[in-house]
Recover the amino acids of this structure.
């Protein structure tokens, strides 16, 4: 077991973890952050995307021990008193149906706008290439990211 | 304030934002795998790496010694814990239903068949321990190609059945041979529906909690059908029905793949009973690819008898449908659910339908979005385009000559279905306008003339489908084990809020929002004041769940009827409170009024509170305003529409890229246009995925080569275009809401539109078919080698017989 210290959604935690435990399993099984789901086992789907020190990562492709000393934001910590504009845009644009990909999609989209505040449609599609959705066909996800960008969502 | 000013705007018809979304965008969700109970034990399954083998030894004794392991079992250890898994549809008298145990006992029949079960204190320990299971497999020859499976002397998937033919089915509507004798042209083609993996984003998961001294059980399952799970778990595991509660919490998509009764549900229930501890199993994605049903996998031989002026007289369809190794809940019924849709919107005089179900050593197939109807629509819409090319007629013109005119509804088709309403002309005109059809045809001509390396193709799909499963009597006649009704309860809380209890089981469709809209209007209460209760058999005692685009047509109608019944009951109490005769009381927009006495009113909320107190009651009214009602449809509903697709094909690389996708759908009246559009987007995306990207491929030993998301191409955002959607609205006459259903329409319509466009781009180069998915390699080969783009699957595979079966390799011939 290895001791790690992390801050998750603003809450500092010290935990002993097995060296092989994936960050996403640590978040779900130890920290109780079950808002971040798992959709695949090959790092293709992006449902488990969180922010690690401000950058989006697929938390299935990071070991919990690699996150030692880091600040992690999950979908559950994105709202700061009120919803993040990306969350609002997803609801307004009907950019989700079953909602399983939504946490990862929103976290990836927020990171996308951090790097490119005014993306065109192709840049949005390319920027979210690592996140799969089976319900929406991405049409309304693109619209939501555009709405958030127009509203200055950061 | 006047009554007019008080009246709230109707909720039905408005794009109201979804009530479901607040928890989904903030991560406050409860997926099955998120259910975490104290003392939970985790299950891992050892799955067969062999497609076909005898099990001569399964030894779990070493596993039981490992740290963290609580128990381990072979299939024969568990014979008292559960029986075989069910099939609910006896499609023919000759149907063969093989034994299908949750854990294999004497043989494995596909890669992924469960061989042993490990129970451990955490998921890592359970998976680690699988390595210590010792299994001796005695390999048997594998059966993968349907035509070879049917040949005399073929290896059998199930020895005891004595044949690989699961069932045969024939239905004649009129005398097809007579049509053929009168025809100038008899056009035949073979189309291939490749095998698909449904890919709901949430992998399957089950949690079972033994409660009440381990004689009662709560099952959480990532399922579309909690009510089915309750019934069938009782039958499979022998737990009395009333001791089982099934909850489908947040469910991350289904598309038919969670319309089933799965081995792992029985395994977890059986182990929870045996061990007296909460049990959890969650599939990895790769495991889900092997152990969750696949879709499609049908070879379609189509023959159209037509006159030289393009009148289509008769249609003959002969299907080979791959069942896989076992029958799941609805496996044999899927190709047959499409049988009435082959004649589609056309006025055929005769239709001859044949279908053979075949066992192979692959994952079982079952319902995938559209379930038989995408296959039918693909075949007929491809065939109409191909026939048009053969006759030298514009494909739209051939359709116009043969489709049912808007003034011919209601129209009884050659199959005997009565299409209640539709307007194919209007939907098509609208689509043509949005698409810019003439300009695109002009551009296409120019590119052909100049031998542009990038050619343009235009694909048409004028589809219809049958929705709203289903009249219970019809289901009974066809051999299905259950009915097709839906039931709803509507009740008022003491403080005047409305609760709706309904048996459809949403997993992304937005039922809570849509049913709130219906109830709000029927009761005259605010949309926000309605709560919709679903997905839990303890809270929703009756239901037949969600599939087949049935939820609004059947469930929504039940909700509307229950609301109306409750208003009638409330009226009795309102009249009593107003000291009026019930026949003198009117209800409008949430208020009861005595005719001719405008000041004498009671709101429905006031009546609800009076009902709760029960201080003074009317004859026939009970304490607590509540009513339930039923919808058992008398017939189906028939959405239709016109989808147009423009594809650019790079003839040098074979890459096909969708430039424009326009769809005009007629799904009848629309309760929430935002949700309807979303259903169309997602449906179209899945249909495009079949046309261009997806295919489950097996190698010649029966290994699923596309065994993970690395190898199976679920389209990502850059792989799809934005869509232009529009509607015509021809109300259905078969239900009081006038709705038709929309969940599957996009998937049904889009696949042939895309492939027709690809072929249209290349027809002048001698190409008359490209097998799905239309990958760059297949398109390039089609251009350079002619025909259908080479072997249907990748080199060296036998997904459909590969090069070893001449009849399924290469392209169809006119």
């Amino acid at each position: 077991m290895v001791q790690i210290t992390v801050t998750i959604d603003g809450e500092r935690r010290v935990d002993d973890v097995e060296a092989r435990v994936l960050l996403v399993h640590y978040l779900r099984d130890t920290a109780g952050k079950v808002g971040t789901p798992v959709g695949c086992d090959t790092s293709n789907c992006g449902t488990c995307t969180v922010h690690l020190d401000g950058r989006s990562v697929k938390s299935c492709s990071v070991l919990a021990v690699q996150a030692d000393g880091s600040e992690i934001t999950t979908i559950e910590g994105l709202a700061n008193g009120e919803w993040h504009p990306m969350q609002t845009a997803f609801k307004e644009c009907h950019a989700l149906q079953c909602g399983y990909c939504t946490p990862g999609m929103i976290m990836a989209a927020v990171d996308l706008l951090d790097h490119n505040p005014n993306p065109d449609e192709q840049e949005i599609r390319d920027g979210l290439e690592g996140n799969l959705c089976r319900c929406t066909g991405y049409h309304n996800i693109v619209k939501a990211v555009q709405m958030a960008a127009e509203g200055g969502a950061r | 304030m006047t009554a007019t000013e008080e009246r709230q705007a109707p909720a039905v018809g408005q794009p109201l934002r979804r009530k479901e979304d607040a928890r989904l965008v903030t991560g406050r969700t409860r997926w099955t795998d998120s259910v975490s109970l104290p003392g939970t034990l985790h299950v891992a399954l050892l799955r067969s790496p062999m497609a076909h083998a005898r099990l001569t030894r399964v030894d779990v004794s070493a596993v039981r010694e490992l740290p963290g392991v609580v128990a381990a079992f072979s299939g024969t250890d568990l014979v008292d814990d559960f029986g075989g898994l069910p099939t609910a549809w006896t499609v023919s008298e000759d149907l063969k239903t093989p034994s299908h145990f949750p854990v294999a006992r004497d043989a494995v029949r596909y890669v992924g068949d469960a061989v042993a079960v490990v129970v451990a204190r955490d998921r890592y320990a359970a998976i680690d321990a699988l390595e210590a299971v010792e299994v001796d497999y005695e390999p048997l020859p594998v059966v993968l190609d349907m035509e070879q499976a049917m040949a005399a002397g073929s290896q059998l998937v199930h020895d005891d059945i004595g044949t690989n033919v699961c069932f045969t089915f024939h239905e004649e509507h009129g005398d097809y041979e007579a049509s053929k004798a009168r025809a100038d042209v008899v056009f035949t083609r073979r189309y291939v529906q490749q095998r698909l993996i449904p890919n709901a984003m949430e992998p399957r998961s089950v949690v079972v909690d033994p409660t009440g001294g381990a004689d009662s059980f709560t099952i959480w399952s990532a399922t579309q059908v909690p009510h089915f799970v309750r019934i069938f778990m009782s039958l499979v595991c022998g737990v009395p029905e009333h001791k089982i509660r099934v909850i489908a919490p947040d469910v991350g998509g289904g598309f038919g793949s969670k319309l089933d009764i799965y081995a792992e549900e029985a395994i977890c229930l059986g182990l929870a009973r045996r061990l007296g501890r909460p049990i959890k199993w969650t599939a990895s994605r790769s495991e889900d690819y092997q152990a969750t049903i696949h879709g499609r996998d049908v070879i379609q031989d189509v023959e159209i008898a037509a006159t030289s002026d393009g009148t289509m007289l008769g249609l003959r369809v002969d299907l080979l449908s791959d069942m896989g190794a076992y029958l799941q809940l609805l496996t044999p019924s899927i190709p047959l659910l499409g049988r009435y849709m082959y004649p589609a919107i056309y006025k055929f005089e005769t239709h001859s339908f044949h279908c053979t179900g075949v066992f192979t050593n692959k994952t079982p197939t079952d319902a995938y979005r559209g379930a038989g109807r995408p296959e039918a629509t693909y075949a007929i819409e491809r065939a109409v385009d191909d026939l048009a090319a053969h006759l030298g007629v514009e494909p739209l013109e051939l359709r116009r000559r043969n489709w049912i005119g808007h003034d011919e509804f209601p129209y009884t088709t050659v199959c005997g279905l009565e299409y209640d309403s539709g307007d194919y002309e209007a939907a098509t005109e609208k689509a043509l306008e949005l698409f810019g059809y003439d300009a695109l045809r002009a551009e296409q001509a120019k590119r052909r003339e100049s031998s542009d390396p990038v050619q343009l193709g235009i694909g048409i799909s004028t589809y219809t489908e049958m929705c709203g499963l289903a009249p219970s009597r019809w289901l009974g006649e066809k051999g299905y084990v259950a009915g097709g009704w839906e039931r709803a309860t509507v009740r008022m809380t003491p403080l005047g809020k409305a609760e709706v209890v309904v048996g459809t089981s949403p997993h992304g469709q937005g039922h809570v929002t849509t049913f709130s809209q219906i109830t709000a209007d029927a009761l005259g209460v605010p949309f926000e004041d309605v709560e919709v209760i679903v997905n839990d058999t303890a809270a929703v005692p009756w239901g037949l769940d969600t599939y087949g685009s049935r939820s609004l047509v059947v469930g929504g109608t039940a909700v509307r009827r229950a609301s109306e019944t409750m208003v009638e009951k409330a009226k009795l109490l309102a009249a009593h409170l107003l000291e009026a005769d019930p026949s003198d009381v009117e209800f409008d927009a949430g208020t009861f009024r005595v005719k001719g006495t405008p000041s004498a009113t009671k709101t429905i909320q006031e009546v609800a509170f009076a009902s709760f107190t029960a201080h003074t009651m009317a004859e026939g009214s009970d304490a607590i305003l509540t009513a339930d009602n039923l919808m058992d449809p008398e017939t189906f509903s028939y959405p239709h529409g016109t989808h147009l697709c423009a594809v650019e094909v790079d003839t040098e690389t074979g890459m096909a890229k969708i430039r424009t996708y326009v769809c005009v759908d007629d799904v009848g009246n629309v309760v929430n246009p935002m949700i309807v559009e979303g259903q169309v987007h997602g449906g179209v995306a899945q249909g495009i995925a079949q046309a261009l990207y997806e295919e489950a491929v097996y190698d010649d030993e029966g290994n699923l080569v596309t065994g993970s998301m690395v190898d199976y191409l679920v389209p990502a955002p850059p792989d799809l275009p934005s869509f232009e959607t529009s509607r015509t609205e021809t109300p259905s006459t078969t239900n009081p809401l006038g709705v038709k259903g929309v969940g599957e329409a996009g998937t049904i319509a889009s696949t042939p539109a895309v492939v027709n466009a690809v072929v249209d781009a290349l027809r002048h180069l001698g190409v008359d078919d490209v097998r799905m998915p239309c990958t760059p390699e297949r398109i390039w080969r089609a251009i350079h080698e002619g025909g259908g783009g080479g072997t249907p699957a990748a080199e060296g595979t036998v997904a459909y017989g590969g090069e070893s079966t001449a009849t399924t390799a290469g392209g169809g011939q006119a």
